[in-house]
C-alpha cells in the first residue's frame, strides 16, 4: 500500500462509431495508458481499485452511441470497491464503495433529498474528469464514500456490485415507498432485476412475482426471494396478466396496491408493466430504453395509480444497502464472477453480444 507514482488505466480512446458516408462501423478503442497521479484537492482521496463491475451503461457508452459528459479519452467504470491509499488521514487504510452517483450537495434537489438526480452530480467513468474504475487507482471526493466494515469472508472486489447493481434497486424500493407486506412484481431479472427481487424480499415484501424470458434465471430466482415466477416467452401482456391473476386468486391476494418494477427497459417489458397496473398500484421504471409505448393514461385516474421513475441511489442509502449484503439478506456470490481487467475489450464484446447471468467484475492486473 502507499501512494503510487502513476495510475495505470484502460482508457476509452474512442467509442464505436460509424462512417457517415459508408455507414461502415469504426471499432471503438480501449487502450492501456499511464496517467500521472493528480494532486489531491482538499476533501479528495486516492482509492486503489479492488474491482470494478461491467455495467450496461458502460457498454452503451462504448458501443451504442450514448455520450459521456467528458469527451473521450476517458476511463469508463462506475461500480467500484477499493481501499483508500492517500489523501485525508481519517480515510487512509479504509475499504470503501464509491457511489456511482455523487451529488453536489448544494443544490435544491440535494437539499430536498432528491440528490440522486442532482443536475451537478459526478459519476466516475462519465463526468468525474477522465477517471473511471477500470484503473489501478481513482481520485474521488471523500464525502460520498461508503466505508466497508466487517465484511467477513466476502471478497472486497465482489462488493463492487453494491455500488450500482444493488443500490439502484434499493433506491427504487425507497422511491416506491415499499412497505413490509407489499406485494411486488419484478419484470426482467437480469443483472439489476434479480437484485430488485432480492432487495424487495429483504425489505419485507409479501409476495414477489418474477417475470422473465429465460427459464434458468426464473428457476434460480426461486431460491433468492421470488415466490412465483412467470416465463413470458411467446406470451402477450394479456396472457401474462392472466397468469398474475391466477397467482392472485389461488393465494387470496388483493387486486390493489401492487408495486411493479420494470427493469428491462424494453418495449414488451414496459407494455407489460402498464398492463399489470391496477388499483392503487405503483409502476416504477428502473430500466432504460428508447422504445415508445402507447397507453390509456386515464387508467391511472380510474385506478388512483402512479407511474414513477428512479435514477441512481442517494449516497446516504449505501450503508443500508451494503448491510443487506453483509447480513446475507441479499446474496452476491451466485450472481458475480471475476476476471482480470486486461480482458476488458473481450469482456465488453462478450457482454454486449450476450448479457451474462453473473455480473462480471474486472480486477486490476496491470
Ligand atoms: Zn451502471
Ligand atoms: Zn445537487
CATH class of the largest domain: Alpha Beta
Number of helices: 10
State Rg. Answer: 21 Å
What ligand molecules are bound, each kind once?
zinc ion
Describe the protein's architecture and organization.
- The protein is of the alpha/beta class.
- It has 2 domains: 6-164 and 313-363, Alpha-Beta Complex (Quinone Oxidoreductase, Chain A, domain 1); 169-309, NAD(P)-binding Rossmann-like Domain (Rossmann fold), CATH 3.40.50.
- Helix content is 23%, strand content 23%.
- The protein has 10 helices and 17 strands.
- Strands 5, 6, 7, 8, 9, 16 and 17 form a 7-stranded mixed β-sheet that branches. Strands 12-11-10-13-14-15 form a 6-stranded parallel β-sheet, sandwiched between helices.
- Helix 3 packs across helix 4 and helix 6 packs across helix 7 (267-275).
- The chain starts with 5 loop residues before the first strand and ends with a strand.
- It binds zinc ion (2 copies).
- One zinc ion binds next to helix 2.
- One zinc ion binds at residues 103-104, 106-107, 109-110, 115, 118, 120.
What's the short version?
The protein is an alpha/beta fold and 366 residues long. 23% of the residues lie in helices and 23% in strands. The structure holds zinc ion (2 copies).
Question: Topology, pairings included?
Answer:
Blueprint: E1 6-14, E2 17-18, E3 25-26, E4 29-36, E5 44-53, H1 56-63, E6 80-87, E7 95-98, H2 108-111, E8 137-141, E9 146-147, H3 167-175, E10 184-187, H4 193-202, E11 208-212, H5 215-221, E12 228-231, H6 237-250, E13 259-262, H7 267-275, E14 282-285, H8 298-303, E15 306-309, H9 318-326, E16 336-340, H10 344-353, E17 359-363
Parallel strand pairs: 10-11, 10-13, 11-12, 13-14, 14-15, 16-17
Antiparallel strand pairs: 1-4, 2-3, 5-6, 5-8, 5-17, 6-7, 7-9
Bound molecules: zinc ion (ZN) (2 copies).
One zinc ion binds at residues 55, 57, 78-79, 100, 164.
Amino acid at each position: 500500500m502507499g501512494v503510487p507514482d502513476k495510475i495505470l488505466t484502460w482508457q476509452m480512446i474512442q467509442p464505436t462509431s460509424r462512417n457517415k458516408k459508408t455507414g461502415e462501423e469504426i471499432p471503438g478503442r480501449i487502450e492501456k495508458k499511464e496517467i500521472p497521479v493528480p494532486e489531491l484537492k482538499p476533501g479528495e482521496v486516492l482509492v486503489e481499485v479492488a474491482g470494478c463491475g461491467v455495467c450496461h451503461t458502460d457498454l452503451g457508452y462504448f458501443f451504442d452511441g450514448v455520450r459521456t459528459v467528458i469527451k473521450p479519452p476517458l476511463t469508463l467504470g462506475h461500480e467500484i470497491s477499493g481501499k483508500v491509499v492517500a489523501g485525508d488521514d481519517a480515510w487512509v487504510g479504509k475499504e470503501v464503495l464509491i457511489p456511482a452517483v455523487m451529488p453536489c450537495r448544494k443544490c435544491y434537489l440535494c437539499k430536498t433529498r432528491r440528490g440522486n438526480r442532482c443536475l451537478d452530480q459526478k459519476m466516475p467513468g462519465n463526468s468525474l474528469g477522465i477517471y473511471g474504475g477500470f484503473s489501478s487507482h481513482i481520485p474521488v471526493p471523500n464525502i460520498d464514500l461508503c466505508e466497508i466494515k466487517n465484511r467477513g469472508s466476502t471478497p472486497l472486489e465482489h462488493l463492487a456490485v453494491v455500488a450500482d447493481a444493488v443500490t439502484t434497486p434499493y433506491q427504487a424500493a425507497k422511491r416506491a415507498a415499499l412497505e413490509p407486506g407489499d406485494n411486488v412484481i419484478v419484470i426482467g431479472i437480469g443483472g439489476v432485476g434479480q437484485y430488485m427481487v432480492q432487495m424487495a424480499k429483504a425489505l419485507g415484501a409479501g409476495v414477489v412475482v418474477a417475470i422473465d424470458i429465460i427459464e434458468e434465471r426464473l428457476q434460480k430466482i426461486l431460491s433468492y426471494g421470488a415466490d412465483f415466477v412467470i416465463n413470458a416467452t411467446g406470451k402477450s401482456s394479456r396472457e401474462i396478466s392472466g397468469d398474475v391473476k391466477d397467482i392472485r386468486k389461488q393465494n387470496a391476494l388483493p387486486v390493489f396496491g401492487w408495486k411493479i418494477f420494470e427493469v428491462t427497459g424494453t418495449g414488451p417489458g414496459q407494455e407489460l408493466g402498464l398492463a399489470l397496473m391496477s388499483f392503487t398500484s405503483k409502476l416504477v421504471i428502473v430500466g432504460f430504453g428508447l422504445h415508445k409505448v402507447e397507453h390509456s393514461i386515464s387508467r391511472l385516474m380510474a385506478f388512483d395509480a402512479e407511474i414513477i421513475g428512479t435514477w441512481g441511489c442517494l449516497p446516504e442509502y449505501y450503508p443500508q444497502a451494503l448491510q443487506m449484503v453483509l447480513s446475507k439478506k441479499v446474496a452476491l456470490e451466485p450472481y458475480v464472477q471475476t476476471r482480470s481487467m486486461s480482458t476488458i475489450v473481450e469482456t465488453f464484446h462478450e457482454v454486449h453480444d450476450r448479457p451474462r447471468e453473473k455480473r462480471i467484475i474486472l480486477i486490476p492486473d496491470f
